[in-house]
């Protein structure tokens, strides 16, 4: 507590006048972090007190079926004392009992400030599936160990995914039963408890159906012209009503010659007519030999039965991340499945996509027959990289995602993982490492690398942002130099990560700096630095925790100029953009030099002499 008071007193004072003081900003941010730690400790103390009350008032009472039983009365005490609703009071009691009985190690993480009270509800709800006491103890220990080992804050989605990954692997049978029950409980409801003549319409359905429905509403609402006065949310509400009732959506711009192209009733615009839902799983889960969890873009971790249901649907296309990967543990020769996959890849590459069309919109042109775990089908690669192995990404890049919002369900096989979670194959195709960039443009990642980065990251890589990976931009962590590619960031796995458009712009047009490098255990570490130099840790983990085989996928290393080549280049004055990018590179090197990551530290890129870098665009 004394450290907290000292941090607050040193950081909070009279308002600064003039330019911000970097040291003062750092002190204030330290105070914010100290307040967070104190909030966690007080929340733990509150849960401890409520659990003690439960022991005193409820545990000693026999179970009964009365509405006003001892548990309800304790909830009423907590609710009245804190001016809460009865539901919230009973929820606090349930969380306190869960921390005491099922999650004692997680409770200690709350006490020590590793997580906050907001995280408790997520952990408690995602571990309710565990009924066996031994399994509950193991899950509690693994979640707590992960929270302490992976430094940095946990967003709601990443914490949920981590808990689901652990629970799904520990007790897949329980997950299967709960999913079946949830599927049977789906429904639609109308909430008229709103003001000013408004009501809310909601429903529950499978995650993929919900994504398809939502993307359909978004695409129809986007047909209105720029002069339409409605907010985006209001346009989407009107679009949903039009789709549900079979009426035609209308633009409300009021212009005599409105440029909007509105489709007929019960239909979507041609450019938005296909919606792709990306699902990632390992091969053993797909063929039914294991029940490892999978990942659905825009949703998170899901169960093995769910992904197999998706894979069995008529409109699903199954594509491996690494074509022709060889099975390990044998002679090292490629498997029969790998040979079939490569043969199908060559045939698809010879046919290619439809002229002027996107591969994702042309996936029906191939008719290979039934698709099973042993029959992998590929769409044709883009013409400018026809010789490159296909990654399985059958949609356009995120830079133009708005022009081809996606329409199908795509189950993918990532790094194959066995039931224990360790890789069971060498993720290198027979032809060698996968290409890292297009042959015609070293700035553009290959389709294999594009898909790999999106699978690895799962979301926008800024802590707290939950933008789905297939909706974000792929950004060069170290700025790419278009005039002299050997001087700037490289197009490789460690050189790229996903950022939503807002955070991409925040980095590109302000003084924020991000970095990405490998830690001693091979885990990808991401950090941000504020304009004042305050270090903020990135997401604690990514999808390599869910798919360990991703760590074994290999890409060709882009060519990089030597230090002597850089020194011999002719000199000229820097532009503002070039100077900013050079400063960022220099700051990253200084940060890496000062950072004590431990033995085995390896930076993302080699150090170079930052001389003239020209004007690289963002």
TrEMBL record:
Domain (DUF222): residue spans on this chain: 46-313
Sequence ranges of Low complexity compositional bias: 391-401
Region (Disordered): 321-445, 578-618
InterPro entries from the UniProt entry: DUF222
Entry protein name: DUF222 domain-containing protein
